[in-house]
Design a protein that fits this description.
The chain is α+β, with helices and mostly antiparallel strands. 43% of the residues lie in helices and 23% in strands. The chain folds into two domains: 14-206, no CATH class; 214-426, no CATH class.
Length: 427
């Protein structure tokens, strides 16, 4: 069986070293393949010898998914390294150019995890590694050596066998020990949270600087999905639950804005009183004191309008990282035209609905402050809509459901205060 094509080294467990002709010989040679069962494990061995040099590659596959052991031996011993890369899937051209797709090298050295984007460095010697490999948003290929030398990452050129076009990608490698052997275990598979945590590769799940929130959201979605059997509806249910949790703060925000709207004529009167003294710092200080005293008298908290949004941003960012890195949601359909919650809406219907509902939500909020500021707020939905048009459907769905719930909440409160104006003062 011929194991590889000549002049290619982008296959897993290819050999690379200073003796180029020998490495090319070992990478393009015909290996004898044998297979056996050993204590319930499947053992596959590749063996090659030309009478002067011998190479043996042994792989043991157990019942642990995607995890296997390897042992590479070359005799007589010669300096070489075993490499994996450029990953276990080829990125599509649009993925390579997308700012939402991360790919590169990863390693753990002295108990510290590092991720190196493929464009950052052409060659990176690491030293002794706990593990080293290559990864993208959803898949991971790594080696965890138990016998061998230092690890390294490098960027190399690959030629597509079909198109003959070349592109650069990342490789990871481990140097052989002085006896010509490198061995350990390897993982080639999806970045499933429970799987990687169980194998000790949990750090490779890079959900960003708000990773704890993303992991919590993923766990919550997974639990809800047991009942909905649809991650789209799981997002809808989770959004409702988040809305319930944040309701007290959002209620205070709306009450504060409504009170500020009611007190706006008094605020404008104070500003008009000091209009001629705008350049006088002392007079401006007096004006600010009077405004704050009015806020206190009317029960207005000027910061109440910012807090719910500030709390929403980490959740929004957590959802963004979750949907662009969690393989559990990759390819997960919702309904109708939405076949993958991790991809953008090809019809742009969701972003358009999100923009419309966000505008309606903003329009329904009590108008306060400068009319020019009001116009800026009303323009924000269109800015968000433009930004969200290329975001994952799941993220847009979350924001859309939030908008709809807020519109319902605001409509109920507006009607209640219209019929019971005395309750606003008590709130």
């Amino acid at each position: 069986m011929k194991t590889r094509e000549p002049n290619r080294d982008d296959f897993p467990f290819a050999l690379e070293g200073q003796n180029g002709p020998l490495m090319q010989q070992l990478n393009s040679a015909l290996y004898t393949v044998s297979e056996r069962q050993d204590r319930g494990d499947r053992v596959v061995e590749y063996h090659y010898s030309d009478g002067r040099v011998t190479a043996t590659k042994t792989f043991r596959f157990s019942k642990q998914p995607y995890l296997f052991t390897f042992s590479i031996a070359v005799t007589p011993p010669t300096p070489y390294r075993v490499q994996v890369g450029p990953g276990i899937r080829a990125l599509e051209p649009e993925e390579v150019d997308s700012r939402f797709v991360m790919s590169g090298g990863i390693y753990e050295h002295e108990e510290k995890f590092r991720m190196v984007p493929r464009e950052k460095t052409a060659f990176l010697p690491i030293g002794t590694v706990q593990y080293v490999g290559v990864a993208d948003n959803y898949f991971l290929a790594l080696m965890r050596p138990t016998h061998g030398g230092d690890g390294m990452l490098k960027r190399g050129s690959i030629e597509d066998p079909k198109t003959k076009k070349k592109h650069e990608d990342y490789f990871a490698a481990v140097n052989a020990a002085s006896d010509g052997v490198v061995s350990g275990d390897a993982f080639f598979g999806p970045k499933e949270t429970k799987l990687l945590d169980g194998y000790g590769f949990g750090d490779a799940l890079q959900f960003g600087w708000l990773g704890l929130i993303a992991r919590f959201l993923l766990g919550a979605l997974g639990w809800i999905n047991q009942f909905t059997h649809n991650y789209g509806w799981a997002i809808v249910v989770l959004t409702i639950l988040i809305k319930i949790v944040l309701y007290p703060l959002q209620h205070k925000q709306t009450v504060s804005m409504k009170k500020m709207q009611k007190a706006q004529p008094k605020i404008e009167a104070i500003k008009a009183k000091y209009k001629k003294s705008r350049t006088n710092a002392e007079e401006r200080q007096k004006m600010n004191v009077e405004v704050m005293q009015l806020y206190q008298k009317e029960g207005i908290n000027p910061m109440a309008g910012c807090l719910p949004l500030l709390l929403q941003l980490p959740i929004l960012w957590g959802f963004y990282n979750l949907l662009s890195h969690a393989i559990e949601l990759r390819g997960a359909p919702f309904m109708l035209w939405i076949h993958d919650l991790s991809e953008k809406d090809p019809t742009y219907i969701l972003p358009i609905l999100m923009t419309i509902t966000m505008f309606l939500q903003t329009y329904m909020m009590p108008a306060t402050g400068d009319p020019a500021q009001r116009k800026i707020f009303l323009a924000m939905p269109f800015i968000f809509g433009f930004l969200f048009k290329d975001f994952a459907c799941g993220l847009v769905l979350y924001w859309l459901v939030q908008n709809i719930l807020t519109i319902i909440q605001q409509g109920i409160m507006n009607k209640w205060w219209k019929d019971h104006p005395e309750d606003l003062q008590k709130a």
